[in-house]
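TL;DR need structure tokens for one chain.
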Amino acid sequence: MPTLLHLSASPRGAASESLLIANDFVAAYREAHPDHEVTHWDLWDGTLPEFGPTAAHAKMAVFAGQDLDSAQREVWKKVTATFARFDAADRYLFSVPMWNHGVPYVLKQFIDVVSQPGLVFAFDPASGYRGLLRGKKAVVVYSSAVYAPGRGPAFGSDFQTSYLEGWLRWAGVADVETIALRPDAATGDVAAGRATAQAAARAVAAGL
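>> reply
TL;DR here they are.
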């Protein structure tokens, strides 16, 4: 059964603009694909393991083909279990608010945990990296409260889309669609674009 995994990077619950648009997407997706499974992963729910010194040493040991010590094996089990939960889905929906021109740190934590050799990527000294998440599709819902294209540098910069979409394509996910809720460039009003973003979410969901 095809599976859509929604990864939510906002901690704001019902007050989250990105989650609001994502929920419209999910409702339309369920209607268009009643035989598909839809699962939700709140990245703030405490299930993400830390990626600290032990995990970093384990990663480099795996990269070098070395044996792991007992502490490294224990943390590596958590890393691989996190990746397995992610990899089990065929399609991804990310809902991502803009934080300080980029993405919330919990999403960066998720990316750092799953981006491991033999899982998300392979590496060859001659040809470089090769993403292993082949044949998957992703939709990303972006939101921002201040930044919008055309507002000028005083209103922020967009490292949100370049970072996440760069990572997805590096990981092998070539099919990426985006939905953005930005404030109006002239007025700064976010509400004005909400209906447009909701309609876009429903259209993308129906055609995915």
